Amino acid sequence: MADRVIVEVDPDLSDLIPGFLTRKRTDVAMILGAIARRDHAEVGRIAHRLTGEGGSYGFTLMTETGRLLEQAAAARDDSQLTMLAHQLLDYIDRLEIVVLPSSD
Fold first, then answer.
1. For the chain, which residues make up each domain, given as ranges?
2. Which helix (H) or strand (E) holds 67?
3. Per residue of the chain (104 residues), what is the pLDDT tens digit?
4. Where are the beta strands (DSSP E) in 1-104?
5. pTM surpassing 0.85?
6. Which CATH class is domain 5-99?
7. Which helix (H) or strand (E) holds 35?
């Protein structure tokens, strides 16, 4: 397996992370389906949501990939969209979550 990607998260978010990542996997599947339908507007909507949500949870690369997906959707670049969607899924699969110590 490829190298793990270690992301440190706030202890207040740790219970939310598994569900969040499950939803992001679903988002990638939705992106791939939208690409197949050539529904670039839908890809753009999902990518925009990824851009905002990724940073909120501490997943900087998810935010960056969301921005690139938005740009590729605007350019209607299906090959770039497909590559980025698979990169995002790979990133999610390689995540290793480290919960930071509580400040209490």
1. 5-99
2. helix 60-75
3. 579 999 999 999 999 999 999 999 999 999 999 999 999 999 999 999 999 999 889 899 999 999 999 999 999 999 999 999 999 999 999 999 999 998 76
4. 5-9, 95-99
5. yes
6. mainly alpha
7. helix 17-37
